[in-house]
Amino acid sequence: MACQSGRSYTIQSGDTLFLVAQQQLGDDNRWHEILKPDGTQFTEIDADLQVGQEVCLPKLLSSERRFALYFAWSRPQETAAELGKLENRYPTLFEFRRSIWPEYEWRADSDLYQQDISGFLDHVVLSDFQHFRETIFSITGHSVPVGQRQRDDRTMQLIDENFLKDIDTLIIVSLDHFETNQQPTPAEVAAIEQFLERKDACLLVCPQHDIGVRDDPESREVEFLHHGDRLVPAQERIGGFARAILAKLGFPIENQFGLNPAKSSVDNAPAPLLKFPDLDDLNILQNVTTFNLHAHLPHYFVPDFLKNSVRVLAKQSINPAAPRHPFVAAGNLNFNALLWMPPHGARQANIFVCDATLWSSAFGGVENLELFWKNLALM
Questions:
Q1: What pTM, to 2 d.p., does this model score?
Q2: Do residues 71 and 173 touch, judged by C-beta distance below 8 A?
């Protein structure tokens, strides 16, 4: 029997009304707010809960949303990449320091900071998400856990019912290289589909750039000169897990290219977004005027058959001063930066597609990103 109001919770072994209230509502004194599916309250007589029993928790208040970041990479595969090759690997922390010297010399001590690829992932990539986590905590009062698909010790953290049970906003940060072949299991797809049936749930899928798709050196050089990031080689294809998840959910959206975004003509801030407020029923971009200036941002290609079910909420302008790019040569001055798939059918949750760097504080536009994060938290 579906809940008449609120959100459903399935009783696990060892659960009591007090324990469920503590874990799900943050206060065991709120046990009386947990209802039966028919909307009636529990009494002392019928409060003996059974495993598998459905109870109904109160609808999440806007300030109580629980976020989680899930990095869909395999740490062992990413950190063991051959350093002799340039393509499809992350730089070491040492290489990163050298490329932007002297800005990052405060992390030069090898006793404190690993100078290899793992050091780059920990002390550059993951650390850039700390401000987002702190901001969400300040709004919701809940910490933002960080999951990694395969940890250094090769243990797997899958997106299963246990992982999803305590969150309502899942951000899949798909920074996995295609070469590592990260694919969701059938059980994960089923768990995510069940998660998306929850009215208060929100899924944000975030594949990053896909640079150097073609094999010929000339086209790769064109793309490289366009974005100009010396740390990104001729080919760096990222976001395979996100693509696979979206395809399994019926949205085969592709992250294409690595486009250099435009700056404001007034200062070095990101150029204003091209927004479509008539499509933004949730006001997710209310008061948000820019995103960021990550040097190589993807265009999210939407197949024609999805035009009626996927809304483009925002586009970013391409840097007109950047060297030529085939996407621009084809007549495109902007790229799709934020997509929204509103609830449909059994799926009551919202799905968004955007770049992984929108949760990072490293590429400018932070004041507007904070507004975007707040809008999500108060959705």
A1: 0.83
A2: yes
